From TrEMBL:
SUPFAM superfamilies: Interleukin 8-like chemokines
InterPro entries: Chemokine_IL8-like_dom, Interleukin_8-like_sf
Signal peptide span: 1-20
One GO term of the biological process aspect: immune response
Source lineage: Eukaryota, Metazoa, Chordata, Craniata, Vertebrata
Name of protein: C-X-C motif chemokine 10-3
Record keywords, A-Z: Cytokine, Signal
Organism from which the protein derives: Quasipaa spinosa (Giant spiny frog)
């Protein structure tokens, strides 16, 4: 009887631990942040709210590539932007008059 209870408790604890772990693809998108960004090259500016996958708000800009950095078939690249940059606050606040598409992703309720 005691042996069966111990096995059941171990199985339940294992299930709880496995469920609490994040899988590889569910982490924050941004690990490094760009220190500089040319406003003229921004195509879209995306805002990702905190979620169960990432506890911080993330800002990702899609920018036109520099002429020397072109990759085959890709004219744009995505860059993570530090939330502390003045540029982020200006784009969100509407102070920049360029036509930048700002995409606010809804928070994910899980």
């Amino acid at each position: 009887m005691d042996y069966k209870c111990a096995v059941i408790i171990c199985i339940l604890l294992s299930a709880i631990l496995v469920q609490g772990q994040q899988s590889q693809g569910e982490r924050c998108s941004c690990k490094k942040f760009s220190k500089k960004l040319d406003v003229k090259k921004i195509v879209t500016f995306e805002i990702f709210p905190p979620s169960s996958k990432c506890e911080r708000e993330e800002y990702i800009a899609t920018v036109k590539r520099s002429k020397g950095k072109k990759k085959a078939g890709s004219k744009t690249e995505r860059k993570c932007i530090s939330p502390d940059m003045k540029l982020v606050k200006d784009i969100i606040g509407g102070k920049i008059n360029r036509k930048i598409q700002v995409i606010k992703h809804p928070s994910q309720k899980e």
